[in-house]
Specification:
409 residues; alpha/beta; Rossmann fold; Molybdenum Cofactor Biosythetic Enzyme, Chain A; 2 domains; 15-stranded mixed β-sheet; 3-stranded antiparallel β-sheet; 18 strands; globular; ATP-binding
Amino acid sequence: MRYVFVGDDFTGASDTLATLARAGLKVRLFREVPSPEEVAGLDAFGLATHARAMGPEELADLLRDIGPALAAHNPQILHVKVCSTFDSSAKIGNFVTLAEGLAEATGIVDLAVLGGQPSLGRYAVFGTLFAKGPDGFVHRIDRHPVMSCHPVTPMCEADLTRHLGALGLCGLHLVPRGAQGERFPRLYDALEQGDITAVGRDLFSAPGPVLVIGASSVAEAWLASLGITEGTASVASPPDRAPTARPVFAFAGSRSSVTTAQIAAASGYWRLPVNPADMMAAGAALAEARRWAEERLERGESCLIYLTADHAGEISPAELARAAADFVADVLVGRTLGGLVVAGGDTSGAIVQRLAIRWLDYEAQVCAGVPLLTCDGPFGPLDLALKGGQMGPRDFFDQAMSLLQRRTR
């Protein structure tokens, strides 16, 4: 397989799926490493993991599980898809450990990092990362109003060579905008979309395999190297279908300020807050929340349950995501919905895992960075939108509902 991408969470992996699909490629996103028969006829495929929420031991287990299976596909370009803000730490979600483990398993020697995604408001200049904030201004990442105070992996270092070095990737050769890389491992700057095209020409013209860490700009660079640029940043419309009155169920595990503002603006939903401690306890309070959601869905009313920003104590993000996934699965059992909307990368991954969804296909675009996906899992056909905590406009939830309810099966 020429191009394989491995996402450290489901929301990021689905964005790369969308980038490739909008360019006209045949691509599918899997929850487990697919067999050769499952990828026959595809131009590329992806593997969505929940590595972003894993500690070192869990990451080691994941690599033992997926490394040899991915090596059997002999990828020429292995894209380790990470958040465009590069937030990670040595103890939680270390994507450098993930990348180096996959490089070892697949025998890939050359490694590169693409530092920006201008199409999403992410910029890397002189090795320093900047990102557009919810206020509309561009901030150095260690001064970003959201990412500098991320509850799990705050970005305290804007110099990507230093940040990546702290994660274990040292000796990076910085490639300035439009320049050619002289040796590996490389770190590419990117300020404008033309820089992404230049990276594609430089990085993917060599015959040998390469592993690239970065956001969906890696896919954009590869497409540009093939002469494919149209559609990589478009917002597609879904196929015309009769509208449906089926309710939409939404769950927000993200407690970022962006998602909080989106929840407040979700005028089309009944809304109910749940304390993280109650979610973990699985007691009377959670049972009441489940009854609340089921009653409204039975009446055909869309509803949104969200975790509050209350301190979760010693609860790990992975544990909280798994508890949320169990809750969502219980609500979905035996129910036909207009769709499922999930906010939060860790939460999205845990829910897809819990629902045992084998694969996801791209259908349309809710907004920049958030595609509409379709699957056919054990719960039956399901349309869903998975969003990272920092993604989407203020009216995201209402946009997602509108798009989902324009579709029916």
